[in-house]
Amino acid sequence: MNVSAMEIMRARRALEEFCAKRNTLADGSGIRLCCDQQDDELFISESGPLQSSSGEGKHQPLVRLSYMNGLWLLFWPREGGGWDPYPPLPRADNIEAVIAEFEQAPVHVHWH
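^ thats the sequence. predicted structure below, dont judge the formating
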């Protein structure tokens, strides 16, 4: 396993812990955070309450993380599609810095 794959696995575990912590603090709205992986990218997504007719909940990506050349590149969804660099922290040296930024994000606008 190469260094990038190991770092992505380590980051996924840390982000899953972040999501679990935020979910325990949830206000009973049924909205949950989760960490997903697609190829070499990680996503923090929000899933809403189950819709009774389909049995599925909405799943909205909030942040995309890519590991490249020893740095984490962070993006958030652009209205109408695509991704823009995450304004407060477009890149970070380690996943701990990413999580620290998420924890202190103003009013936790992303983490309901």
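Helices lie at 3-24, 95-104.
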